[in-house]
Design a protein that fits this description.
With about 325 residues, the protein is of the alpha/beta class. The chain contains 9 helices and 16 strands. Helices cover about 25% and strands about 25% of the residues. Strands 8-16-9-10-12-11 form a 6-stranded mixed β-sheet, covered by helices on one side.
Length: about 325
Amino acid sequence: AGLSGRSNNPLALLFDALQHPGVDSGSPQPSCLQLRRDPSAALTHVFLDASPPGGAWHAMHEATRTLSPGPWMELPGFALADFLRARAPALTAKSAAAAATMRQPRRLIAEYYVAAASHFDVQQHHRPWRAASVRRARDGDAGADGGGAAAWIVESADGTTPPLLARSVVLAVGTAGVPRKLGIEGEELPMVSHKCAALPDEARSVLVVGAGLSAADCIVHLLGQGKTVLHAFRGDAETTKVGSKFGSPGAQSFYPEYHALVRAMKSNGPAQLLGGRYEALAGAELKLIREDGTCNLSRGAREGSAVNVQAVGVMIGAS
């Protein structure tokens, strides 16, 4: 009772308050929790992932930094500060602790999760393949004795690995690979992408659709590359996700690039921003994309406005 923070889940709030007391106020304190390994309570398990530990962090742009400070990114029992000192032995304990509280580069976090997998010795449970199917075991299936020992059969996508037999299956695949789409004509053209990393490097002018965290990340990255970014979003800047999160004066020191973006979203006309050229198209909705790069938009009741770009990024989240 009485806790507030990044989640609406009361159990998550309680764990965060105990594991990372004071982080949200900018005065982090040592954890209130002591974690102890109990081998007798361990479950026999494997986890399947064709990618290394760390998931999407391995596939992001080099320029990407975490939105969360370091303590929110670390795993219990493996302090980020300890990892930083192991990575750079010249760091003192005090300097490593200070560095760990900041927003972190994408590559460092990816390396941290790989190191965490080694630290906790979870690699012995890892199978580097992708599942093709998950189905209930039936009488007569190999390994299914009818007594419930194997409730599920998981088959590999390569077709050669023997199926896995399991009592339980947990699906923890996320939604990054299933982007939401606008459902408009031209959205399947090669110049259109739903991932910033897939936008062509040679494109000098890009239309970005959306105003959430993925769209903001993409825009900040593109501007840093010196590109021209047209930014289409419905509503006004204050009501967007990025506007409500980074528009306050308090966000300026910790998130200067996102705060600058929100200010530009409120302005009229093109402007130089973060090394590139930016123009907000507030209240706009993309209606059509043509092969020549012409994009038709509507603004409220007004139809027929158009812009011409070399690439389109539709960054409106996942399904």
